[in-house]
Automatic annotation (TrEMBL):
The keyword Phosphoprotein applies. It holds the Pfam family Response_reg. It comes from Atribacter laminatus. Keywords: Phosphoprotein. Gene3D superfamilies: 3.40.50.2300. Residues 1-90 form the Response regulatory domain. The keyword Nucleotide-binding does not apply. PROSITE patterns: RESPONSE_REGULATORY. The modification 4-aspartylphosphate is found at residue 28. InterPro entries: Bact_response_regulator, CheY-like_superfamily, NreC/VraR/RcsB-like_REC, Sig_transdc_resp-reg_receiver. Signal peptide: none annotated. GO terms for biological process: phosphorelay signal transduction system. This is Transcriptional regulatory protein DevR (DosR).
Length: 96
């Protein structure tokens, strides 16, 4: 597993996705210049890539699901759970 890039600004994330075409995106709910749900919607409207949302708050789970998140992880659930979700997302992307 390789990290293809990181960015904390909405436009930078979109540009990086376009350049790299990652297999999976891990996206935080909070960004300095916007909301992760807004960025998730932009990603889903332009790219067929599974997005795993990260947050500190369980209550964002339903919003993320409605916006098209592949999965949702509350920070603190652990790296094993994150790796498991990445594997599932990768498998679903390859098999679709």
């Amino acid at each position: 597993m390789d990290v293809a890039g990181t960015h904390d600004r909405i436009q930078g994330v979109l540009e990086r996705i376009e350049a790299v075409k990652p297999d999976v995106i891990i996206l935080d709910m909070r960004l300095p210049d916007g909301d992760g749900i807004t960025l998730l919607q932009k990603i889903k409207s332009s790219f067929d890539i599974p997005v795993i949302m990260l947050t500190m708050y369980e209550e964002h789970k339903e919003r993320a699901a409605r916006a098209g998140a592949f999965a949702y992880l509350v920070k603190g659930e652990g790296l094993d759970r994150l790796y498991q979700l990445i594997r599932k997302a990768t498998e679903s992307f390859v098999n679709s």
